[in-house]
Amino acid sequence: MDIYDLDTPSLIVDLDLMERNIKEMADWCRAHNINLRPHMKPIKVPAIAHMLLEAGAKGICCQKLGEAEVMAQAGIKDILIPYPIVGKQKLERLTRLAKQCKLTVAVDSEYVAKEISKQAVKDGCTIRVIVELFMGRTGVPTPKGVLKLAKKILKMPGLSFEGIMSYPTDEKTGETVKLLKDNGIPVNMVSGRPDIYPLGSKEPLYHQIGLTEIRTGIYVLGAGKYYRFRRDKDDPRKVYYADRSALRVLCTVVSRPIPNMAIIDGGIKTFSSYAGPPYGYFVDYPKALMERMSVEHGHVDISECAEKPRIGEKVTVVPNHPGICINLHDTLIGVRKGRVETIWPILARGKVQ
Amino acid sequence: MDIYDLDTPSLIVDLDLMERNIKEMADWCRAHNINLRPHMKPIKVPAIAHMLLEAGAKGICCQKLGEAEVMAQAGIKDILIPYPIVGKQKLERLTRLAKQCKLTVAVDSEYVAKEISKQAVKDGCTIRVIVELFMGRTGVPTPKGVLKLAKKILKMPGLSFEGIMSYPTDEKTGETVKLLKDNGIPVNMVSGRPDIYPLGSKEPLYHQIGLTEIRTGIYVLGAGKYYRFRRDKDDPRKVYYADRSALRVLCTVVSRPIPNMAIIDGGIKTFSSYAGPPYGYFVDYPKALMERMSVEHGHVDISECAEKPRIGEKVTVVPNHPGICINLHDTLIGVRKGRVETIWPILARGKVQ
Fold this sequence. Notes:
Largest interface: A-B, 57 and 57 residues
Radius of gyration of chain A: 22 Å
Strand content of chain A: 25-35%
Largest sheet of chain A: 9 strands, mixed
Shape of chain A: elongated
Oligomer: homodimer
Structural class of chain A: alpha/beta
Helix content of chain A: 25-40%
Distance between the termini of chain A: 36 Å
Number of strands of chain A: 19
Number of domains of chain A: 2
CATH topology of the largest domain in chain A: TIM Barrel
CATH superfamily of the largest domain in chain A: Alanine racemase
């Protein structure tokens, strides 16, 4: 089936590009001797998780318990949840999940650790725990605070203290590792997210700060922080790295109401309003700019396009944020050289609980 | 079941508030002798569509064909799709749908009208058509252009010309109605969206411009344009009309990393990033401000709250845009006086095709 036979809007992934993204990052991590734990938050498809593991990833990372449940059911055996698990229902789900896979969770307060400990004892299991260091979101604010919490966790039944994590990651992570080790606390796992993308510009920090693994997911469908498609700040029509973006939305031009405007059948509910304007990058019309979106319409300025798209024509658009866009769709269509090869249900879509 | 026994994030609707919103608008339209056609785009639950019809609505409105299919399957018999239907798959779906209900579609180009005509002839049915007037999005730019297209439609087999629509709506709609009638073209339906909310400030235009019906949906869950909760432009902590907002998200405080910050378990994938910051209104903590969101975290400034929410505590948040928020969730939980009364699947969620 040709992609232009698909109804629109359809969410598609260029398999050649995605496979290149997966391979380059796996090779890079292997060459630099650090474990890779891809984040499923911007991917949500278990089949892609398996591709990542086959390429060499150590395990995966899921922001929400519901996402982790989907992945475990698909046979994934090593999952990190870097998110505080709070509340009766979630604690019960957590211990059930821990019996199905090697599960590690992050905590950042005595309250959360204690509640998990109580549930683990009640349900007869041990939960692997890491402490999150605060870098502006969740986490314990200081290395000393991490040490204090780690000592408490070591005494809590049903918990196994494994190490620490941070997001983002800087030298403070290294200080914390050192403080723990100096106090005789073994640190098996140090999970971070430094700027280590293959095309990235910074010298990697991970050796200095003792990272054992990195968490990142956006590189798979939308390439990485440093090479997801970006616009020139002086000229929004000039973009970089669009050839790294594997995720696209196939849309149809449904109206050409006035000469320099095209309306496409995707808006906020198809792309999300995150980041922009302009929204998306038009692969076939690089000079087109989606300046506005309604809930179900995209308003595209085509004044600079030499050839203008016609009503009924299908156009391919790279969304601004693939990870948020994918959460709006039920199906991801894998294409290669313009032909449909695979249709995946996005099984972890909407798993916010 | 008490709402605080729900897992989080959960999307809930206060049934007393929603019923008041539904009744006030229906009463107002009845008193002012204009038909009401609620828009399902920000509602998506067929059971609520039935409540609206029972309150007196003439029919419903669906932005996408997929949404209309869900509603027709739920037994709704009068549906307007104010959106250009383009492409082979959609044309086939359109004629199938027209055999199940009284279906009207808007067109704004000869191309779209011709394609629908061809499909209708092929499938042996007649499609009711209205022409959309351009007011900045889709539509025909001038009243004369509408007349020209209407004349062509009158000659196309398989189509029945019914009238016009606009969005938004102003005096140009009235001019167009007059021009059509002066040219002997019967206009049965004039669908608009003037500012006629019960608590609205403007003098209604609909009598002057000959509207037969109004399309609006946001009033049901989030109240109307003029009384959806709004912030004071000088003081973001001061809000208006929050007591009209029936839709809420129940969240849990999962972290209190530093004294004046609370992290809740809902972010962009729970609320959407549309409109803000700040994001949402905290019913129990009116002085709290959600200044930032990550994909799955809400970052809340609680510096001005006299009492501060604790880790593990559940909080109720009115989303900034109920219609975009509802599209992120699979289930809507109807509550009355703090107790769960109904659980509805959001059947039209994600129907962007």
